[in-house]
Write a structure and sequence with these properties.
365 residues, alpha/beta, nine-stranded mixed β-sheet, eight-stranded parallel barrel, 12 helices, 28% helix, binds pyridoxal-5'-phosphate, decarboxylase, polyamine biosynthesis, spermidine biosynthesis
Amino acid sequence: MLQTPYYLVDKAKLLKNMEKIAYVRKHSGAKSLLALKCFATWSVFDLMQDYMDGTTSSSLYEVKLGKEKFAGETHAYSVAYADNEIAEVLANSDKIIFNSIGQLQRFAEVSEGKPRGLRVNPQVSTSAFIIADPARPYSRLGEWDPVKIEAVIEQISGFMFHNNCENRDFNRFDEMLNLIEERFGHLIARMQWISLGGGIHFTGEDYPLDAFCQRLKAFADKYQVQVYLEPGEAAITQSTSLEVTVLDTLFNGKNLAIVDSSIEAHMLDLLIYRESAKMAPCDGPHTYMVCGKSCLAGDIFGEFNFAQPLQPGDRLSFQDAAGYTMVKKNWFNGVKMPSIAVKQLDGSIELVREFDYTDFVNNLS
Ligand SMILES: Cc1ncc(COP(=O)(O)O)c(C=O)c1O
């Protein structure tokens, strides 16, 4: 048995998402690029690149990773490029998307000849969290004024809209695309490609995939554009777990169990959004608050029920631990960094990365 903590990426589960993504390409013509900001565990890119069309990025390092490790197209996007990185970004990408007209103008000369796009902010979104809402008041994420965009239209061949966030509702997606068309349709018609961003949970159970494909195809046909999607979470949802071991139990008004991991260090997004982790199916009369081993008082994964009282040495498995977790892990408290293991399609489990004290030391100086 592998030493905990470790993330376990299950390729068979990943494959289910990949097959839906390939179905969407076949039936709608839309290409899907993996959003590396969500998931950049390159050990499983060999599987993913057979079903997806490439990657999209949020920085120089992500664009380089995409180019180096994932077949297909490499899109570069960043909220703002620095002068000293733009040459390398251009050298490692097939298309570059600027976040603002200011950046497009600043790098107009150096990016001449490269397919260029602009991020457009349609000022509508589906986010329930202000921190994750690209359409929040005073948002810096993209240009919103059709008049200003029209003035630079000759310099670009595509737009990127990213306004869906964890959107499971096809009707809401459709409604927002209608709004985008009303406001920007006359400009979209002058483009060659349109990225509709990420945040669309089309690989989820019961998502109306055929209606989604028809809508994407109708959009592409109407404006004669190549549509791109940038799935992050939708590509890797339900594929990965974080495996931990109970180190201690206490009673302090509630049963508490401390595990060899930390929500702050290893599943940070749950802490930011104040959500509970998901435990592998378990039930029973014994309720425990499962806590991390960092010194943060609120380092709590959640409350779960178990058939038996928990004991040191028991193994627990947190589900759905791929998206925005491994990319955000950190060395807070010097807690041992989870290894990365991959469950191959034949069922064998391969340890692909271990971290040790040297990695901790090298992280700072
Ligand atoms: C521009 C862009 N594309 C794609 C994504 C991926 O979104 P998700 O992981 O929700 O699919 C994001 C997420 O923030 C994004 O900002």
